[in-house]
Structures are given as structure tokens and as C-alpha cells.
Amino acid sequence: MLKPLSTATRELVNLDGLWDFAVGTAAGEHPWTGPLDTRLEAAVPASYNDLFTDSAIRDHVGWVWYQRLVRVPRGWSDERVMLRLDAATHEGRVYVDDTLVAEHVGGYTPFEANITEHVAAGQEFRLTIGVNNELTNLTIPPGTITITEDGRRQQKYHHDFYNYAGLARSVWLHSVPRVHIEDITVVPGLDSTTGTVEYEIGTSAPAAVRVRVLDAAGTEVAAGEGASGTLSIEDVTPWRPGAAYLYDLVAEIVDGEAVRDTYHQAFGVRTVEVRGTKFLINGEPFYFTGFGKHEDTPVRGKGHDDAYLVHDFQLMEWLGANSFRTTHYPYAEEVLDFADRHGIVAIDETAAVGLNLAVQGGLTGRPHPPTYSDDTLNDDTRAAHAQAIRELIGRDKNHPSVVMWCVANEPSTHEDGARDYFEPLVELTRKLDPTRPVCSTASLLTTHENDRIADLFDVVCLNRYYGWYIANGDLVTAEALMDSELRAWVEKLGKPILMTEYGADTLPGLHSVWDQPWTEEYQVAHLAAHHRAFDRCDAVVGEHVWNFADFQTSPGIHRVDGNRKGVFTRDRRPKAAAHALRARWISLSGHKPSNDA
User: Fold this and answer.
1) Which among 410, 415, 520, 543 is annotated as catalytic?
2) Three-state DSSP class for 478?
3) 590 and 547 in one domain?
4) Which of the following is catalytic: 112, 295, 415, 501?
5) Residue 25 — very low, low, confident or very high, per pLDDT cuts 50/70/90?
6) Distance CA 9, CA 161 (A)
7) Which residues belong to the signal peptide in this entry (predicted)?
8) Are strands 247-255 and 258-267 parallel, antiparallel or unpaired?
9) What sign has the CA pseudo-torsion 196, 201, 207, 212?
10) Are residues 63 and 170 both part of a single domain?
11) CATH number, domain at 196?
């Protein structure tokens, strides 16, 4: 699905701002049939949970309703009028006046509706959007809903971040010509100094198509005819980590000399490959330094904010970080656009987090329901998961910053049924995009001895918390455990190993002269112990600390105002670990130290 753009043949209107807002039954039985009877207003984009002081709104389980009036621009009388939501977490229904025009399940990918037949140029219409935050065993991510004795509905889930909901990303009204470009796929290649560009253009109806490639200065460097083909760029400038260079593929529908539609697709020329125990970008070994992050800020929740976007990337640059993983869901498209322009590498992840009922037993091994069964994660769950993969790749396939797809975070891959569940999903991912490696991250409960699916992936991705959940406060043992496990995975699979999570909760301002957990000194020592282990293992191709910044989680006695593993506080103030990482990562500059360093 193409992101709405303003071009010579297209226009768009941003619908962000304050919308009328109502929760559940307070909105009436059919809230789309008239003006919402409410005094509340909610900001878009933003999660609604932290906007209001009423805990009943924050803890609400079910549908909420947004509404506003929208005027179609007068000049759109001969155009198709489209309505697009960048996301509705986790299910959305869209009404134009009294008519349902779109439904979508999946909280982090866009959907749209052609509303041409329901509106008129120059006229207003009533736009009502329902958003449902319910998670079940058939959703991605999964969850369960329980009813208390007094009749309250409560949402339970196994992922360790708060279930923020609502319209956290932008809403758009945009126009396209009657016959228009619907999709563009760009597959770059690199052969010495020559770049290749395989392209495929999808159109709403059969049409004549031509394409041009412009360099960063706007000079045409390649051109072709037809809806698919391969172009060559001589003396190409590759897209490189830390040195982004973007070309512009201009796709046009033409009728003789007349241009009926035009769309600009930015892309970079680069290759990605796994060879032995190396991860290669443009044929050169790459060492990941960076974080798992979250779209999480005070008041906004998961609401996208360009100011935080810029500041977060500035902090990563200050640290010397070169990459991040979109933990644990597809981020706003603006994030990947920014990464494309600034040469930051991304691992793009689906919202498949919490597929692990074994965590109910914790690390003690207590009995728990099977993760994969007719009553838990089943064929319908896998179908929802497959759709999440399709939508992720469909949205993000042209981003040069994206170098690997992550199909899930910490699923229970040591249980019966894991391979039957995941093997078709990995096959689907490779079919949709054969050009990028595929991975999934392994939880502490999954080891080299009991794992059943790691051979399906290109990179072994480990989330490990030695020195925190295991051997808490004992960094000597933690380092030895890390050493031992790294060696075991290399011996078993001989693949690259990426440390996708490691870290320790830390309270800013808490200090000690001893190795005391929760102190800033312990976080620094904890990371250093892991880094020594990484540097001794040639197969380790990167380190993503958990987490970039503290973030909100569901309430519970095991969390003090959220997860505190960030090297920055939630309002982006550095802990001591941030300075320690900066010293290490600036010296690495994308290349791993030798074992004798």
C-alpha cells in the first residue's frame, strides 16, 4: 500500500488534531449515525489512555469512538477520494456519515477506503472511527479478557509493555486519479560500480507506464517503459549505513504525451547477505550497535511525534548507535523514512509478541497451558500472523534501512507445535521478499538444546538476561553463562549471532560502590560483562541493548512505574550506561573488534 503523497496528480489533507471522543456505551448504541453526545476531545495522533484523568477510560476494554467533520476539497470532483488510517490499535471501523466504509484488524499497519461514492467535492461529511483494543488468542499480539465478580472487563496479555490504544498515527484524506498507480516494488542490486533496479508497478486498471530514476540532485540516470523491468545505474552511489544516498523512482501512467498519474518512490541501492557467520551489507561485514526501542512517550503513549523522532535519532547518533529493532511491532512509516534518509539500519518486526504461554510458569518451570493448541494459539492465530507479515512487508519492502524481517519476539519455540506453527510463516516471508534475511528472537526459556525452529532462520537472535533474571547480582556467573551459550549456538548452527536484547533495570540516581542491582553502576558493569563475552565470539554480529529508554508497562508489583531497563529515562535523560555505551560504540563504528583487542 503506497503512502499518500502530494504530487502533480495527487493531493492530500491531513486530518490530525482534536476529535470528539467517547468510550464504549457512552457513545450510544450506534454512534456513527449522528453527532457524538460527548464533552470529551482526544488528540490524533495519540493513544487515548493517558490523555484523561478518569481511570475508567485508561483501563477501558472494548470500543472507543472518534468523530469529526471533514470537507472534501472543491477541486476533487473528477478524482477518487480516499481515506487512509496509518493505524488503529488494534481494530478499526470507519464510517462516512451512516455508512461503514472500512474495517481492519491489526494495530500497527495502515488501511484505507475509497469513499468517492459517499462524498461530494466541496461538501462536508461526518467521519466516525471506532477503535477496539481487545486482544484474544486470535489476534496479533494475543491476549485474554476476563470478567471480574463485579462485571468489569479486564485485559490480560503476556507482552511487557502497556497496551496503549486508539489513533496513534495520522489520518488522511487524499485524492488519486481514476486510473492510478496502486503499488510499487523496487528490488535493488549492486555489481561493482553499477546498480540494478528491478521494478514492478501495480495499476488500478491496464495502462501505459513509464519510469525514470533521478539521483539526489534530480538528474535522470535511468529510464524505462512498461509496468515491470530492470534498469541500470552506472557509477552508482550505494546506500550505506551512516552514509545514506537515496534515488527517486518516478512512476507515471501516460496517455500519449499526457501524464495521468505520477508517484515518487524513494529507494537506496544496497545489498544484504548472510555468509557463514557474517552479516554483510554491500558485501562488507556489518556489526549492529543499537537498541530495541518502543514508541512510548509521556502523555502521548504510542502516539507518533516528530519532535521525539528527531531527538531519539539524535541521541542514537550521539551514542554511536547504527541500528535498531522495531520492538515489538511495525513503527510509524515516518520512522523508517527518517532512517532511510540518515543511514540508520533497521530490523523490522511484526506485532507477534507474547506468543509464549510458558512465561506463566516463569523460569521455575511450573505447569502452564500449551502455547499451541485448538484453544490457545491455533490455525486462526497463524492466519492472523500471516496477514500481519503480508502487511508489514507490503508497507516496508522499499525501505533500504530495513535489512532483516523479524517474524516474532520471544515465542515459545521449545514446545510441541512450534515448528508446525512457524515453518509456514517463514516460508511466506521468504516468498514475499527473497532479498532480506529472516529472524525471530529467542527467549530465555529457549536454549540451543530445546529449540525447534532456529534452523529456519538466517541469524540466531538471542534475548538474554544473565545477571538480571538469572544470576541476579552475580556478573561473574552471568559472563560465564553468556560465553557458554554463545559457543553452544555456534557449534550447533554455525550462523551469525545477534544479541537482540540484554540489559538490567536501573533507577536513575541510585548509586552504590558494590555490584548492587538497580544502581547505575550495576547497569554499566552488567553491559560491560556482556560486551567482553561478545568480543570473544567471532560469530556475534551485533548488540542491541534493551532498552533505548524506560517505557510504560501494565501495572504490577514486578515493575516500578514501567520497565526501567532504558539507558535513557522515559523523558530521554541519560543514565551512566549511556555514556559507557557511547565510549564503546564510537570506537566500534560498525566494525567488531578482533579477539585480541
Assistant:
1) 410
2) helix
3) yes
4) 501
5) confident
6) 42
7) none
8) antiparallel
9) negative
10) yes
11) 2.60.40.10
CA distance 442 to 357: 14
Q: What is the DSSP string of 230-259?
A: EEEETT----BTTB---EEEEEEEEETTEE
Report in angstroms the alpha-carbon separations of 496 from 197, 225, 410: 28, 41, 18
Q: Are residues 56 and 140 in the same domain?
A: yes
Q: In this structure, how many other beta carbons lie within 10 angstroms of the beta carbon of residue 38? A: 17
Would residue 423 show up in a list of annotated catalytic residues for this protein?
A: no
Answer yes or no: 501 catalytic. yes
HEC profile for 322-352?
CEEECCCCCCCHHHHHHHHHHCCEEEEECCC
pLDDT tens per residue, range 342-398: 999 999 999 999 999 887 666 555 677 899 999 999 999 999 999 999 999 999 999
Sequence-distant (≥ 6) Cβ neighbours of residue 466 within 8 angstroms: 477, 478, 479, 481, 482, 502, 530
- The Cβ of residue 220 has, within 10 Å, a number of other Cβ atoms equal to 11
When divided into structural domains, the chain yields a total of 4
| HSE of 414, CA atoms in CB hemisphere, 13 A | 16
- Which range marks the domain in which residue 255 is found? 181-270
CA atoms of 558 and 44, how far apart (whole Å)? 32
SS3 111: strand
Q: Are residues 499 and 442 both part of a single domain? A: no
**Residue 185 neighbours by CB distance under 10 Å:** 15
Q: Is residue 303 part of a domain?
A: no
Task: Kindly tell me the burial class for residue 514, based on how many C-beta atoms sit within 10 Å of its own C-beta (0-12, 13-18, 19 or more).
Answer: exposed
| Residue 196 lies inside a defined structural domain of this protein | yes
CATH number for 114: 2.60.120.260
CATH number of the domain at 405, please. 3.20.20.80
Q: Could you tell me if 187 and 243 lie in one domain?
A: yes
> Do the strands 91-96 and 11-14 form a parallel or antiparallel pair, or are they unpaired?
unpaired
Residue 72 lies in a domain: yes
Over residues 102-141, the pLDDT tens digits come to 999 999 999 999 999 999 999 999 999 999 999 999 999 9
Record the pTM: 0.95
Per-residue pLDDT tens digits for 160-189: 999 999 999 999 999 999 999 999 999 999
